[in-house]
Amino acid sequence: MSTSPSAAGSIAVLAVAKPSPLLAPRLNAAFEVHALDATLPAGVPAETAPRIRAIFASGESRVSAELIANLPALEIISVMGVGYDGIDVAAAKARGVVVTHTPDVLNDDVADLAIGLMLSAARQLPAADRHVRAGLWPQGTLPLARKMSGARIGIVGMGRIGQAIAQRALGFNMTVAYTARSAKPRLPWAYLPDAASLAAVSDFLVVITPGGAGTRKLINAEVLAALGASSPQKGILVNVARGSVVDEAALIEALENGVIAGAGLDVFETEPNVPERLRALPQVVLAPHIGSATGQTRQAMADLAFDNLQCQLSGQPVKTPVPECRPAE
Ligand code: 8YV
Q1: Mutate to test the pocket of ligand 1, among 62, 77, 82, 320 (most ligand atoms within 8 A of CB)
Q2: Over 119-154, what HEC string results?
Q3: What is the CATH number of domain 12-103+295-325?
Q4: What is the pLDDT of residues 284-314, one digit of tens each?
Q5: Which of 47, 125, 139, 262 could form a disulfide with 121 if both were Cys (CB 3.0 to 4.6 A apart)?
Q6: Residue ranges of domains in the chain
Q7: Which class is 107-286 in CATH?
Q8: Which atom in ligand 1 lies closest to the alpha carbon of residue 292?
Q9: What is the mean pLDDT of the chain?
């Protein structure tokens, strides 16, 4: 990232994540952008810290109470992502700093990827691809896979993306059930009170709940055992939420011991590091956190993240504050 030289009157922004190439030119043209120096308490030299009015972050960024406290002129933390579990929103709010994110524009892509991972795991598409590439087809084809159409999907988290996944699952004639903090009476699908009881009636358990303290290791050994026992074929886990929501050690054990049939994972506990034991399992389909990673969607996310910065820093109301920062209705 290029750091623009300090200019009188220019607005200083701290980028705690590397801005996407879809955003960087606009950001650098409008603001004086400083890359985070994690060795400094305020992320920037002491003479710059009092001038930082905005933080740019990604969905995976961490912004601590300490960092916020060290930036006295901070007004906004603009996250380019729907998830903001790494941001200390309570500390930001207490200081009057607004936190914004980029909801909705990525619903389709994340839902598409969830379906893609379900199909990939059920029909073993990566293994099929490897089989053909390795020239093994003349020696025989693959073992029979399992059918996805008509199966039962359990969705953990029934927000906007969860509903987009449910809509797609209906196109596969799947039976939809879900769990969430509370039932959503306007939705026609069965509500189960917790992840374990949902897993017990699911062939595919798809995780799309926000990360953070409230959902840490929600998918634990007990939930995985229930998913495994849901049918003689055993269930498949798909995670397109946050790695923190799944107890990764318990998941590896469940896969290694054949407790569940397989998994499709876009997110991991310590990205970008994926445990060797997980990488060694052929029944697992792995992706490097690409839920929103299409050109169209990332452009929309970049534009929204920029607009939120621009609005706040020019005295306009921001477009998409996180729920905790929305004005009372
Ligand atoms: C991206 C994400 O990884 O939206 C989120 O919460 O996890 C992702 O879409 C990232 O934030 C892109 O900047």
Answers
A1: 82
A2: HHHHHCHHHHHHHHHCCCHHHCCCCCCCCCCCCEEE
A3: 3.40.50.720
A4: 999 999 999 999 999 999 999 999 999 999 9
A5: 262
A6: 12-103+295-325, 107-286
A7: alpha beta
A8: 9
A9: 96
